[in-house]
């Protein structure tokens, strides 16, 4: 009886401790604001994890570079000093082969992106990031297609870009693309771009739709041309030290949820872009663009990449068309 009593008391204590255990605090930091698709992705991921593992985690989102810029966040998650991050083009700088996402008109449409990223190409990118950064890739989603906003004229032809000073981010391939189109690429900090556009330091900028909207660049630029010249994925990354601290069930849920929300994140990003375009079109002229001449003029950039890194990844992308 005494042994049974002790065992029963011990079991009751364990149940009590488990029921009132403190949730695991998880900081998820991003360099972009709550206007971005990355905030939607955070919401979708954390809501689903909470459904499946109620009360086990206390997720906190830190947008707009509150904990550091994109480069610093990637450094910190690699070092294990932050649990999770939601980032985008900074991941391309981890490895030159990932610069494939800086190539112009790599994908035909959002549907093409979805097919490519859900197949062998997406698997290869995930593995490359994990190998190069020593992190866990929980999910790969969408940061958005990039367009051109400027205060000079609508961009309908390549000649319309000639001599324009455009704020360009990304790596060497993206800068080369704009140079090939007659643009004078400018390096300006993103937070300074509104003022640079307002004062004429630059004539325009290239960015995702939410970037223009959150900075209110449509209030100082007259034209937004939907060039979709670059598609940038977003990445939900976890540090290996945080990942290793999870139990098997938690790892399983994180992995399953990270994959299962992918379709919803693309749909949400599309709706978000549609809404921002509708709002900005009240103050700015928005135009579609015949892209074939632009694609033909920048084909050499693709050739340069293929010469350096081979055709394996490009073949996977083309197979998904």
Any idea of the CATH class? Alpha Beta
The coarse overall form would be: globular
What percentage of residues falls in helices of 4 or more residues? Answer: 40-55%
Oligomer: single chain
Strand content: 15-25%
Number of strands: 9
- List unreliable stretches of 5+ residues: 1-20
Radius of gyration: 22 Å
As for the CATH topology, it is D-Maltodextrin-Binding Protein, domain 2
| CATH architecture term | 3-Layer(aba) Sandwich
Mean pLDDT comes to: 92
How many separate domains? 1
Helix and strand sequence: HEHEHEHHEEHEHEHEHHHEHHH
| Class computed from helices, strands and strand pairing | alpha/beta
Instruction: Describe the sheet with the most strands.
Output: 9 strands, mixed
* CATH homologous superfamily heading: Bacterial extracellular solute-binding protein, family 7
In DSSP terms, counting alpha (H) and pi (I) runs of 4 or more, how many helices? 14
Distance between the termini: 71 Å
Pfam families: DctP
Keywords: Signal, Transport
Family: Belongs to the bacterial solute-binding protein 7 family.
InterPro entries: DctP_fam (IPR018389), TRAP_DctP (IPR004682), TRAP_DctP_sf (IPR038404)
Task: Characterize this entry briefly.
The chain has one domain: D-Maltodextrin-Binding Protein, domain 2. 47% of the residues lie in helices and 20% in strands. The protein is built from 14 helices and 9 strands.
Structure characterization notes:
The chain is of the alpha/beta class and 321 residues long. The protein has one domain (2-316): Bacterial extracellular solute-binding protein, family 7 (D-Maltodextrin-Binding Protein, domain 2, 3-Layer(aba) Sandwich). Helices cover 47% and strands 20% of the residues. It has 14 helices and nine strands. Strands 1, 2, 3, 4, 5, 6, 7, 8 and 9 form a nine-stranded mixed sheet that branches. Helix 2 (37-52) packs antiparallel against helix 11. The radius of gyration is 22 Å and the shape is globular. It comes from Marinobacterium zhoushanense. Keywords: Signal, Transport. Pfam families: DctP. Belongs to the bacterial solute-binding protein 7 family.
């Amino acid at each position: 009886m005494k042994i049974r009593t002790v065992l029963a008391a011990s079991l009751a204590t364990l149940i009590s401790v488990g029921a009132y255990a403190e949730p695991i605090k998880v900081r998820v930091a991003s360099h972009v604001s709550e206007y971005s698709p990355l905030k939607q992705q955070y919401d979708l991921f954390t809501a689903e994890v909470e459904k499946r593992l109620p009360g086990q985690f206390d997720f906190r989102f830190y947008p707009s570079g509150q904990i550091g810029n994109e480069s610093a966040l990637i450094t910190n998650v690699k070092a294990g000093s932050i649990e999770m991050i939601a980032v985008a083009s900074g991941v391309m700088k981890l490895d030159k082969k990932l610069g494939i996402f800086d190539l112009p008109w790599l994908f035909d449409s959002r549907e093409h992106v979805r097919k490519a990223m859900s197949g062998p190409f997406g698997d290869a990118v995930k593995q490359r990031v994990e190998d190069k950064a020593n992190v866990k890739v929980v999910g790969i989603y969408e940061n958005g297609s990039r367009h051109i906003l400027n205060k000079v004229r609508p961009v309908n032809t390549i000649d319309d870009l000639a001599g324009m000073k455009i704020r360009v981010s990304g790596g060497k391939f993206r800068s080369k693309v704009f140079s090939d189109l007659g643009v004078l690429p400018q390096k300006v900090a993103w937070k300074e771009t509104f003022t640079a556009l307002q004062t004429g330091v630059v004539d325009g900028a290239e960015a995702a739709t939410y970037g223009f909207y959150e900075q209110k660049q449509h209030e100082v630029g007259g034209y937004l041309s939907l060039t979709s010249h670059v598609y940038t994925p977003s990445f939900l990354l976890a540090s290996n030290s945080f990942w290793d601290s999870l139990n098997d069930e938690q790892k399983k849920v994180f992995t399953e949820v990270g994959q299962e929300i992918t379709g919803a994140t693309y749909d949400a990003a599309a709706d978000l872009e549609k809404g921002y375009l509708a709002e900005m079109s009240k103050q700015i002229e928005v135009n579609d663009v015949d892209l074939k001449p632009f694609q033909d003029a920048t084909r050499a950039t693709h050739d340069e990449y293929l010469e350096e890194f081979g055709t394996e990844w490009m073949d996977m992308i083309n197979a998904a068309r």
